[in-house]
Amino acid sequence: MSGRAEILQRLGEQAEPWDVLVIGGGSSGLGAAVEAAARGYRTVLVERFDFAKGTSSRSTKLVHGGVRYLEQMNVTLVLDALRERGHMLRNAPQLVHDLSFVVPAFSYFTLPYYGFGLKVYEMLSGRLSFGASKLLSRKRTMEMLPGIASEGLKGGVLYHDGQFDDARYIVALLRTFQELGGTAINYVEATGLLQHGGRTVGIQARDCEGDERFELQAKVVVNAAGVFSEEILAMDGAKPGSLLAMSQGSHFVLPQSWLPGGSALMVPKTADGRVLFAIPWHGATVVGTTDEGVDHASVEPHSMKSERNFLFEHIGRYFGRRPKATEILSMWSGLRPLVKQGDGKTSKLSRDHTVLVSKSGVVTVTGGKWTTYRRMGQDTIDHAAEVAGLPKVASRTLELKLHGWTDRSTSMAESERVYGSDLPFLQKLSNDDPQLSALLHPRLPYRLREVVWAARYEMARTVEDVLARRTRALFLDARAAIEAAPAVADVLARELARSDAWKHRDLQRFYAVAKGYVYEDE
């Protein structure tokens, strides 16, 4: 695999325009890039920060059709998402798996109501169904959700949906893109658009590490910058604030003891009409999410007091007690780019995606949801190919197995399973150097070998890249991640030939970010 310096040199010495240039390294950007490369188009992708730095690493970790969209009668979105859910499982079984969900019922009316709705949800998935839904007795509901508050409980409904590791899925897309001949680079910012005769013909770019400036020419530019899409559109003359309404979702991470049974809890409608999940993930319990409108995009969004109060209140309601401050292992927030439709609440805005083509030919994809990333990429590249006059090629991604695909048993720990077919090569690192077998921290499942692997093969450039996205340490236990950071910095500095001064600066940057994941008693 080419090193960063070699990639930058190649970009700086561009001989002919790229077929497709993608701005944004999240699910929509990498989904579009993989789609383009799979069709044989010469494709380059630039990301201002790190791959999945934004929304794509901050989801509720679900691959799902969206039960609440069914209630909103958005059957098309649900059908598309359920179909894509099935293909995500087939194409990346090391990252996506079936999860049992239980909807508790506290009145006899809700049992048949939810039972019928979830049976329809199951039927819509057809041959790609993850499993049958069924009504549960009060006793069986409590067995599957051992920590649930039992007062007033009448029974429950079991259904099946998908779960995944979002940031690791992005890494798989990145590696797949590279294997298809694509070129991707993180920490390169699009600072402006190149335009000629009223057409966009590329971008002005800046290497955020070395501050070098260069130009990248392309037959078509795809804007997949998520909540920052309007920044790119502004370079093209668009009016700010005209496209997106942003919504924030926040999560608490609690110990596994809160949900020890292996099944997830789903509340389809809280008192204010939101959906609440509590799910087992990487040996912890993730509880979320909220849905609060925000005025502007932020690289590191932080939870609002109203969101934390919402989570505390509903955890207390459904688990019979509120978590202590020390039990909140991590908390994180993500922003959803929703396409404006009047002045409705963000929770009511559609999660359908939108593809727009500007007068100058910039193709923007926004909205949508993680599960439909591949379909979003397909639609985006259909438009991009038309704008660029590229040869018409049918989509080839529906059955495309992602990097790391394996049909081996998935009984291993989730922290190892996500590497799929790469796992033996990862393990060889510590076989060759036993020091790399050392755990990063007693409360984390990761070892020093993961840091080496991330630097050598997954384009990790910073301590945050390793602890937040190549591993999920920061999302699982923020305090443990902070304590592990110096050891990660030592290994990373050695792998990337960095100075002690760099190591100090990078650690300080990581501590500033990680502080936002630590819950302090209010």
Task: Output the keywords.
globular; 3 domains; FAD/NAD(P)-binding domain; alpha+beta; D-Amino Acid Oxidase, Chain A, domain 2; 6-stranded mixed beta sheet; about 525 residues; single chain; Helicase, Ruva Protein, domain 3
What does this structure look like?
- With 522 residues, the protein is α+β, with helices and mostly antiparallel strands.
- The protein has three domains: 4-55 and 168-243 and 349-388, FAD/NAD(P)-binding domain, CATH 3.50.50; 87-163 and 245-339, 2-Layer Sandwich (D-Amino Acid Oxidase, Chain A, domain 2); 414-517, Alpha-glycerophosphate oxidase, cap domain (Helicase, Ruva Protein, domain 3), CATH 1.10.8.870.
- The chain has 17 helices and 19 strands.
- It has helices at 4-12, 27-38, 67-71, 75-91, 110-124, 138-144, 166-179, 229-235, 305-319, 373-388, 414-417, 423-432, 448-457, 463-470, 473-476, 478-496, 500-514, and strands spanning 20-23, 43-47, 62-63, 96-105, 134-136, 155-164, 183-186, 188-196, 199-207, 213-217, 221-223, 244-255, 264-267, 276-281, 284-288, 292-294, 330-339, 353-357, 363-367.
- Strands 3, 4, 5, 6, 12, 13, 14, 15, 16 and 17 form a ten-stranded mixed sheet that branches.
- α12 crosses α13 (448-457).
- The radius of gyration is 23 Å and the shape is globular.
- The N and C termini lie far apart (48 Å).
